[in-house]
Design brief:
Number of helices: 2
Strand content: 25-35%
Largest sheet: 4 strands, antiparallel
Shape: rod-shaped
Number of strands: 4
Number of domains: 2
Distance between the termini: 83 Å
Helix content: 25-40%
Structural class: alpha+beta
């Protein structure tokens, strides 16, 4: 017999259980590797007065900064009251 003492039904049950275990392991590994939100104390973040602007958009600017000796990108959000036209006028 091809599947030994287990038979076809037993073999399929073992395969299904094995695949289920692998899927659970994969789910747990992916879940553990997700990015987490970090809360960085502002006092540990250093921006110079003339920080280099890396990018800019409707909602703010991305500046070069330093955190614990590592260069980082910092998004400085615009105040909600500032409109798109106010941002455009500041570039003129």
């Amino acid at each position: 017999m091809l599947f030994g003492k287990l038979g076809l039904a037993g073999f399929l049950a073992v395969v299904i259980i094995g695949v289920s275990i692998l899927m659970i392991i994969a789910f747990l590994v992916i879940r553990a590797n997700r990015l987490t939100v970090m809360h960085i104390p502002f006092s540990e973040l250093h921006l110079s007065d003339e920080s280099e602007v890396l990018g800019e958009g409707t909602h703010g600017k991305v500046l070069r900064g330093e955190y614990r000796g590592t260069q980082v990108a910092v998004k400085r959000m615009l105040a909600p009251r500032q409109s798109r036209s106010a941002v455009q006028h500041s570039h003129d």
